[in-house]
Design brief:
The structure holds three protein chains of three kinds. By secondary structure, chain A is mainly alpha-helical. Chain A is built from seven helices and no strands. A six-stranded parallel β-sheet of chain B has the order 3-2-1-4-5-6, with helices on both faces. In chain B, helix 10 links the parallel strand 5 and strand 6. The chains are: A mainly alpha, B alpha/beta, C mainly alpha. At the A-B interface, helix 2, helix 5 and helix 7 of A face helix 2, helix 4, helix 6, helix 9 and helix 10 of B.
């Protein structure tokens, strides 16, 4: 019985959100505000459950010696963030923000260089002639490598705005645009696929779990 | 004639909405499923998992929430079926806290079907904030990030975790990705520690992962509902992804038809204006 | 001091991580681990930022009895109900975790309220994207035609019905192009260009059978693979390298204290 009631509640919220397609209405607004309110509460819950309790409370309980004292620093920085809610002391939260921003920047530099730029540029050094098992294969593989190498270079050049796109730069950035259009087209196709999958699942929920038609 | 085309170029949006809804609902009501020929990248991912020796430790990361559940949940369930049927041991964690229960519910459900025991055959660690920092520190030692599992059980009291100190003991990471965490797994997990990675992603982020695949930074990518259906096909199960293939096909054709109709109207009207 | 200390903190933490990448041994390797651990703890708390203003804003609406005060009340109530329910489950469940499998919070609230809300919120995007595809996806010039064709071919290559539908879709699209070029040729006076237009139109007609009914009927999935793996991949890589360079430059500016917008 309880499960039937909860299925009906789930169906109610599904339909409430779908009703927005007709026009903005009180039912949709109600559901939307429930969503925003509960998401905010979720945040507090998981910060406690997965961060403050296991890392700080349990940390202080279980760690010993130097490791325990070191925990005071993140504890203070975390408390400073909460001080943002108290006007006269809110400037202290900048220390914590500065720490997270500095860490994010440092992590960003290392990840992007070591994990992206270097391997991606390396992977673009492809031979411009590939001998395949058949002539057809040779042509195809060579053609593919040429597109990958020059497609990448020309796309980057297209985003190079420090000089006017004339002459050689003009030609290469035109080819860059062509490659970009194919890229955006493919991404758009994939985006449609993703969005539609979401709808399929919701309609399936309504027809299967709620109405029992399927 | 021109009037008709004008109408075609300006169909009311609600008519389009109704068409999209019907193109979804009617195929579902027919209950028909469609055969798919698995994409090469999904086959590659499948074969990699097939090649893992029994009792290897694999890791799965829940980096999505309900917004992309329809694509990634079937992928997760298929992966769990695959892993448990091959007696692989599974460690689950996540970077998207709002999606964690989705992961854990699937884990408990599928593990139950194979009579797997918590702590021995599978473990649910939970979540810690800080994506990149978490991935880097897990590579040094799991204990620096998770000294306990989701229920605050010390991980050294779980037999499975006693054998795992860092990524060296992990044979695969399946990252189920709805956003930028997939990049972080590659840029820190693979780049620093050579962690073998398969990314299962929503169709929106799938195109972004092709450069990683070409550079061999990931083993493979399973993309979108279609990728999930391919995986189900390879495993011989009919899950929600396979059921979704017919409506998926029909709505795409409807959308393509709308694009074509819109363009006919547009081109003719443009000529008429000239 | 209100400015210098935060700038120093940013500088030290950023530089340390970069150094640790190049010198992963003691002391940098260990310091990196410790700093990462602190970051794991502190960054969680940053999620709390904004909750106060969200609640304050809605309490304000309620106090001033604004027109949408009832919705503000809904938001505040759902916040406190969710929070209370979660706390009760933290205390009650053996795992002390409201997200765990034995928790009623997870079983009922999450599964029957939160999932439907979030999933449907994103599912309605499918209607908007269909409508946008129809409205905005117009072949205004060669580049937009290319974008359109690439999208259609990728979609056809990725759906199970694609192979059977491809010949007909190709027929329609190529006929449109052929008719368009033919119609354009009528308005051209220069004979050479006129012939070129007619030729282009004829080429489109001639390609319908070999391309649509022979090649794509069999190979549209492989063709979509090719688009994804070759030109799409190259374009994406170019874009992402650009973004990466921008990200690195921005990070350096932040570490050096040139970029300070986060201090506001």
């Amino acid at each position: 019985m309880t499960s039937i009631i909860w299925t009906w509640i789930a169906a109610f919220f599904t339909l409430a959100i779908l009703s927005f397609l007709y026009k903005d209405n009180p039912l949709y607004k109600f559901a939307e505000h429930v969503y925003v309110g509960s998401s905010a509460a979720f945040t507090i819950l998981y910060v406690w459950v997965f961060d403050a309790y296991p890392k700080l409370v349990m940390g202080f309980r279980e760690k010993v010696g130097m490791q325990k004292y070191l925990l005071i620093i993140p504890l203070i920085l975390s408390l400073f963030i909460i001080l943002r809610f108290i006007k006269p002391l809110s400037w202290l939260s900048r220390w914590s923000i500065a720490f997270t921003v500095g860490m994010a920047a440092g992590l960003g530099i290392t990840g992007l260089t070591q994990g992206f730029l270097v391997p991606q540029v390396q992977a673009s050094f492809l031979p411009l002639f590939v001998q395949g098992p058949t002539t057809g294969q040779t042509i195809l593989l060579t053609f593919n490598n040429i597109i990958i190498v020059f497609g990448t270079i020309f796309t980057i050049l297209y985003f190079y705005f420090s000089r006017e796109h004339k002459g050689l730069l003009g030609v290469s950035s035109k080819i860059g645009v062509t490659i970009l259009m194919i890229t955006f087209g493919a991404s758009f196709g994939y985006t449609i696929m993703a969005r539609i999958s979401l709808l399929i699942q919701r309609v399936y929920f309504l027809l299967h779990n709620w109405l029992g038609l399927v | 004639m021109i009037e008709l085309l004008k109408k075609l170029a300006g169909i009311d949006r609600r008519f389009i909405y109704a068409a999209v809804f019907l193109a979804t609902a009617i195929p579902i009501l027919t209950k028909a499923t469609m055969k798919v020929e698995p994409l090469p990248e999904v086959r590659k991912a499948y074969e990699y998992i097939e090649s893992l020796p029994e009792s290897s430790v694999v890791m799965v990361s829940i980096d999505y929430d309900a917004a992309s559940m329809p694509e990634l949940q079937p992928m997760l369930e298929a992966f769990l079926h695959h892993s448990f049927s091959k007696n692989l041991r599974v460690i689950m964690l996540g970077h998207w806290p709002l999606g964690l229960p989705l992961g854990q519910q699937a884990l408990e459900k599928v593990a139950g079907q194979y009579n797997k025991e918590y702590g021995v055959d599978y473990v649910f660690l939970g979540y810690r904030p800080g994506v990149a920092a978490v991935i880097i520190n897990l590579g040094k030692d799991f204990r620096t990030v998770f000294s306990s599992d989701y229920a605050y059980t010390p991980i050294d009291s779980l037999p499975l975790m006693r054998e795992v100190s860092n990524y060296k003991n992990v044979k695969l990471l399946l990252g189920l990705e709805a956003g930028a965490v997939g990049d972080a797994w590659v840029q820190y997990g693979y780049a620093r520690y050579n962690l073998p990675i398969i990314l299962g992603s929503t169709a929106v982020s799938t195109p972004d992962y092709y450069p990683y695949m070409q550079a061999n930074q990931v083993i493979s990518v399973i993309g979108g509902l279609r990728g999930a259906a391919d995986y189900e096909t390879l495993l011989g199960i009919t899950g929600e992804a396979s059921i979704g293939m017919l409506p998926q096909s029909v709505i795409h054709l409807v959308i393509i038809a709308f694009i074509i109709i819109g363009n006919i109207g547009f081109l003719v009207l443009r000529r008429a204006k000239k | 001091m209100k400015k210098e200390i935060p700038l120093a903190i940013t500088f030290i933490s950023g530089v340390l991580l970069v150094l640790a990448l190049f010198i992963p041994h003691k002391p940098f390797g260990n310091l990196e681990e410790i700093f990462n651990d602190w970051y794991i703890i502190v960054s969680g708390f940053t999620f709390l930022l904004g909750i106060d203003s969200l609640l304050g804003y809605n309490f304000g609406k309620l106090k001033r009895k604004e027109k949408d005060a009832p919705y503000a009340l809904v938001l505040i109530l759902s916040f406190f109900i969710t929070l209370t329910w979660g706390i009760v489950e933290i205390v009650r469940t053996p795992e002390h975790n409201p997200f765990g499998p034995t928790s009623t919070f997870s079983l009922y609230f999450y599964n029957s309220i939160f999932i439907p809300l979030q999933a449907t919120m994103f599912a309605i995007l499918s209607f908007f994207i269909a409508s946008a595809a129809y409205r905005a996806f117009r072949a205004k010039e060669i580049n937009s035609a290319l974008l359109l064709v690439s999208a259609v071919l990728v979609m056809l290559g990725r759906i199970p019905l694609g192979q059977s539908a491809a010949p007909y879709v190709i027929t329609v699209i190529f006929l449109i192009f052929a008719v368009y070029f033919f119609a354009e040729s009528a308005g051209v006076t220069e004979p050479k260009i006129k012939i070129a237009y007619i030729l282009v139109a004829l080429i489109f007609v001639a390609l319908i059978y070999p391309l649509g009914f022979v090649y794509f009927r069999q190979h549209i999935p492989e063709f979509a693979d090719w688009i994804m793996n070759v030109p799409q991949m190259a374009g994406k890589r170019g874009i992402m390298i650009g973004i990466a360079l921008g990200g690195i430059a921005m990070s350096i500016r932040i570490i050096l204290g040139i970029e300070r917008t986060y201090m506001k």
